[in-house]
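Service request form, structural biology core

Requester: graduate student, group of Dr. S.
Request type: structure prediction, single chain
Budget code: on file
Notes: please return the result as structure tokens.

Sequence provided:
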Amino acid sequence: LEEEQKSRPRGGREDPFSKTKTPEKTAMARRPGRDEVSGKPLEEERKWHEGVTDWFRENEVDPKALSAEFIGTFLFQFLGGSAASNSVDAGLTTAAFGNGCALAVMIYSTARVSGGHLNPAISTALLLIGEGEMTVPKWAMYLCSQFSGALLAATCLRWLCPDTAVVRNPFVTQGILNDGVSRNLAGLGIFEFVMTFALVFVVCAVALDAKGPARQYAPLAIGFTYAAGIYCEGPYTGGSMNPARTVAAAIVYADFTGMWITLLFIFLGAVFGAFTYKAAFNVERLDYGNEQEPSSVTQFV
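Core staff response, request fulfilled:
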């Protein structure tokens, strides 16, 4: 009798710390369509999750691809911005070669999952020319991932880079290498237009077009083109060629000098580069048939 009295809850109430379930709770949890823990209908528990999943499935948006774009753009911004912050002491080669290598490595790392865009201008150009299986919902989610990754990396750079590097190198704060761009906005726009045109033209030639003879080396060609652009326009205007990097740095450091002209001509250069290649050379998409498995060829863009 003493053992039974000790095992009973005091005052006839249920012990809240007891692991034993009452018959009422057990019956409620075992009812069909209810969660075993909360006892709530499963429809209410999964309604939000299923709605998001259905939206991604209907719009053919892969969450893994968004994660790849976020991580890839973050690392590209972080590595490229760090290299550029040292270019004042080490020379222009540090910024150009560092950014080119970072871009090539990140494209190699993310191409299988997301196509390795890492650039809102490239995603926008592919959407407008109807290539790369790019849809409006997918384009919007790609841009969100790219801008978010670049913004996070720019925030880290502001915290990590010394003040002397930030003051002497406006690439970290404005996404450009030269602090005199506000004096010649027309020159800034033309340089960004031509360099982004060349970048997207190369992307279409080596990564998008199935006729390209060096598809497996596409990230290297794209990285070298990016480095060449910085070598070309770096001493005069900078070398952004990527709206995410420019916008992220401008927001973090609250410095929007020349940003509007940079963004306008970057997007224009990307669109014109993609349309020019498609109109002149007729992009031929890679056909994965029975002769070649998709896993044996890296699908860029």
